[in-house]
Amino acid sequence: MLDSTCDLPHASDQHANWRVVPLHIHFGLDVYRDHVDLDADAFYRRLRASPVHPHSSQPSPGEFVECIEALADYARVLVLTVSSKLSGTFESARIAAELVGTERVHVLDGGTVSGGTVLLADAIQRRLDRGTSDDEVIAFIDRVGSSSGYVFMVATLEYLIRGGRVSRAAGVAGGLISAKPILRIADGEIVVVKRVRGRGHAVTELERMLVGETPDDGAVHIALVHADARTDLERLAERVHAVRPHASLDHRIAFGPVIGANAGPGAVALAWLVDEC
What sign has the CA pseudo-torsion 89, 92, 96, 102? Predict the structure, then answer.
Protein backbone atom coordinates (compact mmCIF):
# COMPACT_ATOMS: atom_id res chain seq x y z
CA MET A 1 0.00 0.00 0.00
CA LEU A 2 1.40 3.34 -1.13
CA ASP A 3 0.27 6.92 -0.75
CA SER A 4 -0.35 9.05 -3.83
CA THR A 5 2.93 10.95 -3.56
CA CYS A 6 4.48 7.91 -5.23
CA ASP A 7 3.00 9.50 -8.40
CA LEU A 8 1.96 6.11 -9.78
CA PRO A 9 -1.83 6.55 -9.96
CA HIS A 10 -2.51 3.27 -11.77
CA ALA A 11 -0.29 1.13 -9.56
CA SER A 12 -2.85 -1.66 -9.20
CA ASP A 13 -2.92 -2.04 -13.00
CA GLN A 14 0.76 -2.98 -12.87
CA HIS A 15 0.57 -5.05 -9.68
CA ALA A 16 -2.75 -6.54 -8.59
CA ASN A 17 -1.67 -6.49 -4.93
CA TRP A 18 -0.78 -2.75 -4.88
CA ARG A 19 -3.10 -0.05 -3.55
CA VAL A 20 -2.75 3.75 -3.40
CA VAL A 21 -4.27 6.00 -0.71
CA PRO A 22 -4.62 9.57 -2.01
CA LEU A 23 -3.51 12.76 -0.30
CA HIS A 24 -5.56 15.91 -0.93
CA ILE A 25 -4.88 19.11 -2.80
CA HIS A 26 -6.70 22.33 -1.88
CA PHE A 27 -7.37 25.31 -4.14
CA GLY A 28 -9.10 27.62 -1.70
CA LEU A 29 -12.31 25.81 -0.72
CA ASP A 30 -12.02 23.26 -3.54
CA VAL A 31 -10.55 19.96 -2.39
CA TYR A 32 -9.39 17.20 -4.73
CA ARG A 33 -7.97 13.74 -4.21
CA ASP A 34 -4.43 13.59 -5.56
CA HIS A 35 -4.32 11.82 -8.96
CA VAL A 36 -8.00 10.80 -8.57
CA ASP A 37 -10.13 13.93 -8.95
CA LEU A 38 -7.29 15.95 -10.47
CA ASP A 39 -4.55 14.51 -12.66
CA ALA A 40 -1.14 16.06 -13.32
CA ASP A 41 -1.98 17.80 -16.61
CA ALA A 42 -5.18 19.36 -15.27
CA PHE A 43 -3.37 20.44 -12.10
CA TYR A 44 -0.60 22.33 -13.90
CA ARG A 45 -3.12 24.09 -16.12
CA ARG A 46 -5.02 25.23 -13.05
CA LEU A 47 -1.85 26.11 -11.12
CA ARG A 48 -0.68 28.49 -13.85
CA ALA A 49 -4.07 30.20 -14.07
CA SER A 50 -5.12 30.28 -10.41
CA PRO A 51 -4.55 33.35 -8.20
CA VAL A 52 -4.74 30.99 -5.21
CA HIS A 53 -1.68 28.96 -4.30
CA PRO A 54 -2.71 25.37 -3.55
CA HIS A 55 -1.74 23.45 -0.45
CA SER A 56 -1.84 19.76 0.37
CA SER A 57 -3.04 17.64 3.26
CA GLN A 58 -2.36 14.07 4.33
CA PRO A 59 -4.92 11.25 4.28
CA SER A 60 -6.80 10.73 7.52
CA PRO A 61 -6.16 7.58 9.55
CA GLY A 62 -9.71 6.57 8.62
CA GLU A 63 -8.82 6.56 4.92
CA PHE A 64 -5.96 4.17 5.62
CA VAL A 65 -8.20 2.02 7.82
CA GLU A 66 -10.75 1.75 5.00
CA CYS A 67 -8.09 0.57 2.58
CA ILE A 68 -6.58 -1.90 5.06
CA GLU A 69 -9.98 -3.39 5.87
CA ALA A 70 -10.64 -3.90 2.16
CA LEU A 71 -7.55 -6.13 2.09
CA ALA A 72 -8.86 -8.65 4.60
CA ASP A 73 -8.05 -11.53 2.24
CA TYR A 74 -4.33 -10.70 2.30
CA ALA A 75 -2.06 -12.36 4.85
CA ARG A 76 -0.13 -9.13 5.44
CA VAL A 77 -0.17 -5.49 4.44
CA LEU A 78 3.00 -3.46 3.95
CA VAL A 79 2.33 0.28 3.97
CA LEU A 80 5.12 2.32 2.36
CA THR A 81 4.77 6.08 2.77
CA VAL A 82 6.46 9.31 1.77
CA SER A 83 9.19 10.44 4.15
CA SER A 84 7.80 11.17 7.60
CA LYS A 85 9.93 14.34 7.67
CA LEU A 86 8.10 15.74 4.64
CA SER A 87 4.50 14.78 5.44
CA GLY A 88 2.22 13.60 8.23
CA THR A 89 1.12 10.70 6.02
CA PHE A 90 3.32 8.18 7.82
CA GLU A 91 1.76 9.16 11.15
CA SER A 92 -1.76 8.76 9.73
CA ALA A 93 -0.87 5.29 8.51
CA ARG A 94 0.73 4.39 11.84
CA ILE A 95 -2.41 5.45 13.73
CA ALA A 96 -4.54 3.46 11.28
CA ALA A 97 -2.47 0.33 11.94
CA GLU A 98 -3.02 0.79 15.67
CA LEU A 99 -6.76 1.24 15.15
CA VAL A 100 -6.98 -1.92 13.07
CA GLY A 101 -5.09 -3.72 15.83
CA THR A 102 -3.50 -6.51 13.85
CA GLU A 103 0.10 -7.65 13.55
CA ARG A 104 -0.32 -8.29 9.82
CA VAL A 105 0.02 -4.54 9.03
CA HIS A 106 3.50 -3.00 8.92
CA VAL A 107 3.98 0.73 8.26
CA LEU A 108 7.29 1.67 6.65
CA ASP A 109 8.79 5.14 6.35
CA GLY A 110 10.19 5.26 2.83
CA GLY A 111 12.34 8.30 3.61
CA THR A 112 11.84 9.58 0.06
CA VAL A 113 9.09 10.60 -2.35
CA SER A 114 7.62 10.07 -5.82
CA GLY A 115 9.97 8.07 -8.08
CA GLY A 116 12.14 7.20 -5.09
CA THR A 117 9.16 5.58 -3.38
CA VAL A 118 8.26 3.66 -6.54
CA LEU A 119 11.77 2.20 -6.77
CA LEU A 120 11.51 1.05 -3.14
CA ALA A 121 8.09 -0.48 -3.81
CA ASP A 122 9.49 -2.29 -6.86
CA ALA A 123 12.33 -3.67 -4.73
CA ILE A 124 9.89 -4.90 -2.08
CA GLN A 125 7.78 -6.54 -4.78
CA ARG A 126 10.82 -8.37 -6.17
CA ARG A 127 11.42 -9.76 -2.70
CA LEU A 128 7.78 -10.77 -2.34
CA ASP A 129 7.94 -12.54 -5.70
CA ARG A 130 10.95 -14.64 -4.68
CA GLY A 131 9.74 -15.13 -1.11
CA THR A 132 10.58 -12.94 1.87
CA SER A 133 9.72 -12.17 5.46
CA ASP A 134 8.51 -9.01 7.14
CA ASP A 135 11.80 -8.78 9.02
CA GLU A 136 13.78 -8.90 5.76
CA VAL A 137 11.66 -6.14 4.20
CA ILE A 138 11.99 -3.95 7.29
CA ALA A 139 15.77 -4.49 7.36
CA PHE A 140 15.98 -3.60 3.66
CA ILE A 141 14.14 -0.31 4.20
CA ASP A 142 16.34 0.49 7.20
CA ARG A 143 19.57 0.17 5.20
CA VAL A 144 18.46 1.35 1.74
CA GLY A 145 19.62 4.92 2.26
CA SER A 146 23.23 3.93 1.59
CA SER A 147 22.37 2.49 -1.84
CA SER A 148 19.83 4.99 -3.12
CA GLY A 149 19.59 8.64 -4.07
CA TYR A 150 17.07 11.29 -4.98
CA VAL A 151 18.24 14.54 -6.58
CA PHE A 152 16.23 17.19 -8.33
CA MET A 153 16.18 20.64 -9.86
CA VAL A 154 13.46 23.27 -9.53
CA ALA A 155 12.72 26.41 -11.52
CA THR A 156 12.40 28.35 -8.27
CA LEU A 157 12.52 27.57 -4.55
CA GLU A 158 9.39 29.64 -3.95
CA TYR A 159 7.00 26.67 -4.02
CA LEU A 160 9.11 24.67 -1.56
CA ILE A 161 9.36 27.70 0.71
CA ARG A 162 5.59 28.23 0.65
CA GLY A 163 5.09 24.59 1.58
CA GLY A 164 7.62 24.83 4.41
CA ARG A 165 9.99 22.30 2.84
CA VAL A 166 13.02 24.61 2.69
CA SER A 167 13.84 27.83 4.51
CA ARG A 168 13.33 31.37 3.25
CA ALA A 169 17.08 31.95 3.73
CA ALA A 170 17.89 29.20 1.22
CA GLY A 171 15.45 30.75 -1.21
CA VAL A 172 17.08 34.19 -1.21
CA ALA A 173 20.32 32.96 -2.77
CA GLY A 174 18.48 30.47 -4.97
CA GLY A 175 16.58 33.27 -6.64
CA LEU A 176 19.64 35.26 -7.69
CA ILE A 177 19.82 35.99 -11.42
CA SER A 178 19.31 32.68 -13.30
CA ALA A 179 20.60 30.32 -10.61
CA LYS A 180 18.79 26.98 -10.60
CA PRO A 181 18.74 25.17 -7.26
CA ILE A 182 19.93 21.58 -7.12
CA LEU A 183 18.48 19.67 -4.18
CA ARG A 184 18.47 16.19 -2.77
CA ILE A 185 16.65 14.18 -0.17
CA ALA A 186 19.07 13.36 2.63
CA ASP A 187 17.95 11.51 5.75
CA GLY A 188 14.35 12.06 4.67
CA GLU A 189 14.67 15.84 4.35
CA ILE A 190 15.12 18.22 1.42
CA VAL A 191 18.46 20.02 1.36
CA VAL A 192 19.87 22.51 -1.13
CA VAL A 193 23.11 21.10 -2.55
CA LYS A 194 24.22 23.86 -4.89
CA ARG A 195 23.04 26.35 -7.50
CA VAL A 196 23.97 26.41 -11.18
CA ARG A 197 23.32 28.85 -14.01
CA GLY A 198 20.57 27.76 -16.39
CA ARG A 199 18.47 24.64 -16.87
CA GLY A 200 21.00 22.99 -19.17
CA HIS A 201 23.67 23.12 -16.48
CA ALA A 202 21.13 21.88 -13.94
CA VAL A 203 20.40 18.76 -16.02
CA THR A 204 24.16 18.21 -16.36
CA GLU A 205 24.55 18.44 -12.57
CA LEU A 206 21.90 15.76 -12.00
CA GLU A 207 23.75 13.52 -14.45
CA ARG A 208 27.05 14.22 -12.66
CA MET A 209 25.57 13.24 -9.30
CA LEU A 210 24.26 9.96 -10.72
CA VAL A 211 27.67 9.10 -12.20
CA GLY A 212 29.44 9.96 -8.97
CA GLU A 213 27.27 7.73 -6.81
CA THR A 214 26.40 4.67 -8.92
CA PRO A 215 28.17 2.01 -10.97
CA ASP A 216 27.24 1.26 -14.57
CA ASP A 217 25.48 -1.94 -13.65
CA GLY A 218 22.18 -3.74 -14.23
CA ALA A 219 21.54 -3.58 -10.50
CA VAL A 220 21.02 0.19 -10.78
CA HIS A 221 17.33 1.06 -11.07
CA ILE A 222 16.38 4.58 -12.11
CA ALA A 223 13.22 6.69 -12.12
CA LEU A 224 12.84 10.09 -13.77
CA VAL A 225 10.08 12.51 -12.78
CA HIS A 226 8.99 15.89 -14.13
CA ALA A 227 6.60 18.71 -13.28
CA ASP A 228 5.26 19.88 -16.65
CA ALA A 229 8.83 19.71 -18.03
CA ARG A 230 8.81 16.86 -20.54
CA THR A 231 11.57 18.30 -22.70
CA ASP A 232 14.00 18.43 -19.80
CA LEU A 233 12.95 14.93 -18.74
CA GLU A 234 13.72 13.53 -22.20
CA ARG A 235 17.04 15.38 -22.26
CA LEU A 236 17.94 13.86 -18.91
CA ALA A 237 16.84 10.40 -20.08
CA GLU A 238 19.21 10.64 -23.05
CA ARG A 239 22.07 11.62 -20.75
CA VAL A 240 21.29 8.77 -18.36
CA HIS A 241 21.32 6.25 -21.21
CA ALA A 242 24.66 7.63 -22.37
CA VAL A 243 26.45 7.53 -19.01
CA ARG A 244 24.75 4.46 -17.50
CA PRO A 245 23.90 2.24 -20.49
CA HIS A 246 23.65 -0.92 -18.37
CA ALA A 247 21.34 0.57 -15.73
CA SER A 248 17.60 -0.05 -15.82
CA LEU A 249 15.50 3.05 -16.50
CA ASP A 250 12.33 1.70 -14.91
CA HIS A 251 10.04 4.74 -14.71
CA ARG A 252 9.36 8.06 -16.41
CA ILE A 253 6.50 9.68 -14.54
CA ALA A 254 4.97 13.07 -13.74
CA PHE A 255 4.81 14.79 -10.39
CA GLY A 256 1.15 14.80 -9.42
CA PRO A 257 -0.79 17.64 -7.80
CA VAL A 258 0.53 17.24 -4.25
CA ILE A 259 4.22 17.07 -5.12
CA GLY A 260 3.76 19.55 -7.96
CA ALA A 261 2.26 22.09 -5.55
CA ASN A 262 5.44 21.89 -3.48
CA ALA A 263 8.06 21.57 -6.23
CA GLY A 264 6.43 23.87 -8.77
CA PRO A 265 6.32 23.66 -12.58
CA GLY A 266 9.66 22.96 -14.19
CA ALA A 267 10.98 20.58 -11.54
CA VAL A 268 12.83 17.47 -12.74
CA ALA A 269 13.99 14.64 -10.49
CA LEU A 270 16.34 11.68 -10.78
CA ALA A 271 16.02 8.76 -8.35
CA TRP A 272 18.17 5.66 -8.22
CA LEU A 273 18.41 2.47 -6.23
CA VAL A 274 21.19 -0.10 -6.38
CA ASP A 275 19.58 -3.46 -5.68
CA GLU A 276 20.91 -6.91 -6.59
CA CYS A 277 17.55 -8.61 -5.95
Answer: positive
